[in-house]
Amino acid sequence: MKKLVKVVAAIIENEQQEILCALRSPEMSLPNMWEFPGGKVEANEDIFTAIEREIDEELGCKIENFKDIFNDTTHEYETFIINLISIKCRVVEGAPVPSEHSKLIWLKRENLDSLKWAPADIPAVKQLVEEKLDLSKAK
């Protein structure tokens, strides 16, 4: 039986309405694939506390999250199952600096699908692109 891992991912948007994308390093599992930064939820930790802790640890900045789930997906990899919970956030102190990732970039929603994403992140990417389309139709 594969282990189920609960993970939070931050969808961090800046004032230019760009989304922060993180490139997994060659040493990480799923090397050289893009993801939204975040990490495992610890025992007895709520997802909103976990996302703030993980971003502080991984990117060295403080974020504020919007206290609701943007996307919740479960994806089965070869050796484990991931429950990936994406939460929209914004930076409130400092600037993101990669400590575990190879690279960070800011991209407009319509360009997100130009990257090679980790499979579990794809549903959130699609939802962000569709959200942009819905916003432009509403104008």
Strand content: 35-45%
Rg to the nearest angstrom? 14 Å
Strands, count: 7
Under CATH, the topology can be stated as: Nucleoside Triphosphate Pyrophosphohydrolase
H-E order:
EEEEHEEEH
Count of spatially separate domains: 1
Question: What structural class should be given to the helix and strand makeup?
Answer: alpha+beta
What's the CATH architecture name? Answer: Alpha-Beta Complex
- Number of helical segments? 2
Helix content: 10-25%
Oligomer: single chain
- Tell me the strand order in the biggest sheet: 4-1-6-5
Overall shape: globular
Q: Could you name the CATH homologous superfamily?
A: Nucleoside Triphosphate Pyrophosphohydrolase
What is the mean pLDDT?
Answer: 94
How widely separated are the two ends?
Answer: 49 Å
Give the helix/strand layout.
Blueprint lengths: L2 E10 L5 E6 L10 E2 L2 E3 L6 H13 L2 E15 L3 E14 L9 E6 L13 H17 L1
State the gist of this model.
With about 140 residues, the chain is of the alpha+beta class. It has helices spanning about 45-60, 120-139; strands at about 5-10, 20-25, 35, 40, 60-75, 80-95, 105-110.
Task: Describe the protein.
With 139 residues, this protein is of the alpha+beta class. It has one domain (3-138): Nucleoside Triphosphate Pyrophosphohydrolase. Helix content is 22%, strand content 40%. It is built from 2 helices and 7 strands. The protein has helices spanning 47-59, 122-138; strands at residues 3-12, 18-23, 34-35, 38-40, 62-76, 80-93, 103-108. The protein has a 4-stranded mixed beta sheet, with helices on both faces. A 3-stranded antiparallel beta sheet has the order 3-2-7, with no helix packed on it. The longest helix is centred in the last third of the chain and has 17 residues, at 122-138. The protein is globular and about 45 Å long. The N and C termini lie far apart (49 Å). The relative contact order is 0.25. The model has no long low-confidence stretch (mean pLDDT 94).
